[in-house]
């Protein structure tokens, strides 16, 4: 046996890569190995029993002997009372209770056992996740069990119904937690007897049931730092107008993260909200109208914004994207839409040198005057009538290499995703960067941290020279996604070469 295997930390590192059967085999080797691998085996346990064929219940004798090692426990559809009455897991910190696999709606008895499981470990639990699609009513005992968890920091509730009479109890039970997730939950009408959640830092609301204004609940979280609101067509829409008014009046002075997935904002409302936030770190507004007003408002946060997700924002034009990249110095994660290559060429050098993940669509087709329509004059680029057809090949190559040099300045990039969009009328993808060495691919050699590189659109015309260059110049590259070549034989030869360098290759099918 190698001397390194006598070290505890080495055995633990190996054990984290093994499946349960391998862990059992290792634990049976000797007493020294048993102590190391048995802890990993019982670190995370799942109780699942939905029928005679689907069961992952450990033998009770072994469970009693090793329950003190359990740190993560998942109860998935288990309806065996002796397991649901478990107690004595002195290290249990994370508990997940799932009712998705019940063939019938779980009765109040199962909610009672869940409550008992929480109460039995109230002194150690730090995270509780409750997933139920049956619409079981929250009981007073459940609220009391949550309130008794003195170390609880995160609570996730999904699919439970909160009667009006239990609203005050549940909200009071949550007043000391830091992260609260409510998914498919009905907001009871706010009652003056309810107390504010003084320690809540992060509130996540997904698919709230319509009928009650959720702003009443948000307003009573004075220390809120992160707000996530994800609604769908049948769900309660985010109260944008009231939220903006409260924000401007000084509510939530510590708010720094705003996640508005699937919530449409107009440019004016979003701009006003960004003006009301004192220090913005994260903004996800994936279907909002991010335009000149929003850009002007977010500029005051240029030194603090770390994450910016503006995917599918229809008003987000190339000049604004160029302004973001040339002014947001703290950005680490950016996802935007289309920017014309001439906006990059005419714009200032990119200042977002801390970027680690970039998703962008650099359109290499002819510049369009419509790109600059309806934009504030301060964000318009030169409305030159020069088009791609007026440029000779050498000028276009020079411009393309300048675009490459802009990307190359982002030396901390780990993930680069070059998007494209489908031209329905023409039946092709929009032109993107030519990923060949002659076109300027070698300009990207400074991207030594690049781990994942993907590109959409029409197949590239790479050769083995480009593939060898990637393997040599991007030492951390582990994932490559896109159509490397139109020739199947060449493609598979490239794939074999990349795999020999431990680089996974994923193809993007051609749209039909």
TrEMBL record:
<protein>
    <recommendedName>
        <fullName>F-box domain-containing protein</fullName>
    </recommendedName>
</protein>
<dbReference type="InterPro" id="IPR032675">
    <property type="entry name" value="LRR_dom_sf"/>
</dbReference>
